[in-house]
Write a structure and sequence with these properties.
Helix content: under 10%
Order of helices and strands: EHEEEEEEEE
Number of strands: 9
Structural class: mainly beta
Bound molecules: zinc ion
Number of helices: 1
Strand content: over 45%
């Protein structure tokens, strides 16, 4: 059975990310700079190109799809927790091309910002630490 813990909203940061920067690296840097180790992120905007992952459950590894084209960020949503003692952003994105066709997946390095407006919420609560999970092969939150 899954376990959930109560968290409380501590602070909210909102702003625009830098043109040409790596989207996942920027979100991670913001969290590290503001000591956000438990929270959530969301964003909208556009990217110049994208790299998104799909976790192959049988092979237990990500396969990455790189799209060398301008895309809209319809929705980025994710969370912030601790991995190896450092804030880690885990985010998924839905992107759309010029025809409005949507693609999505696990946000990976290599997704380059054209314009991005983001909101980061920091929570107070117990630590969420990522540890290796035998069932999935993924670094998931420790079940206490
Ligand atoms: Zn993911």
């Amino acid at each position: 059975m899954g376990k959930l813990a109560a968290v409380e909203k501590k602070s909210v940061f909102m702003g625009r990310l830098a043109f040409g920067a790596d989207l996942l690296e920027e979100l991670t840097r913001i969290c590290k700079d503001r000591s956000v180790s438990c929270g959530r992120v969301e964003a909208i905007g556009a990217v110049r190109k994208a790299c998104i992952g799909y976790y192959d459950q049988d092979l237990r590894q990500y396969q990455f799809n790189t799209m060398e084209q301008a895309l809209e960020i319809l929705k980025l949503t994710g969370n912030v927790s601790l991995k190896d003692g450092e804030p880690m952003v885990h985010a998924h994105v839905t992107l759309a091309d010029e025809k409005g066709r949507a693609f999505g997946g696990h946000l990976a390095p290599g997704t380059i910002i054209f314009a991005c407006e983001c909101i980061v919420e920091a929570f107070d609560g117990p630590e969420f630490k990522r540890v290796y999970d035998e069932d999935t092969g993924l670094p998931l939150w420790e079940q206490k």
